[in-house]
Amino acid sequence: MPGGESTTIGKLAVDFDLLEPLREFGKNHAIWGTCAGAIFLSKDVRRDQPLLGIMDITVQRNAFGRQVDSFEADLPIPELGDGGPYHAIFIRAPIIESVQGDARILSSLPDGRIVAAQQGTLLATSFHPELTEDSRFHEFFLSLAR
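User: That's the sequence. What structure does it adopt?
Assistant: Structure tokens below.
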């Protein structure tokens, strides 16, 4: 699920009758939600908007502020191997407030805010790995899809 605007993604999924087919797809296939996609995957965003609701995470939208508050950070992510920290790009990003059930934290900022989580073959990132040349996160997702 791409970054972008989670409310628009949800409204379009409703308008085109995609919510249930996407939920069914997520039962047997890997899905990765990046930024707005992570919001769309979540079970709770503390506001009324269409969600897939298939990942046991609570997400806070725009947690770091406005577009001008976008930033980059180097994150330790052990699941990505020994390639060193992962350089993450955050654009008007959400945070994962909490994980429940069998969801687990993959990475947090130094202040403890969660920015990546996994639940089975579901993956959520607050940042945009597609904006870097580091393919390790994409490789990790492919390993989940196998």
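DSSP finds four helices and nine strands in the chain.
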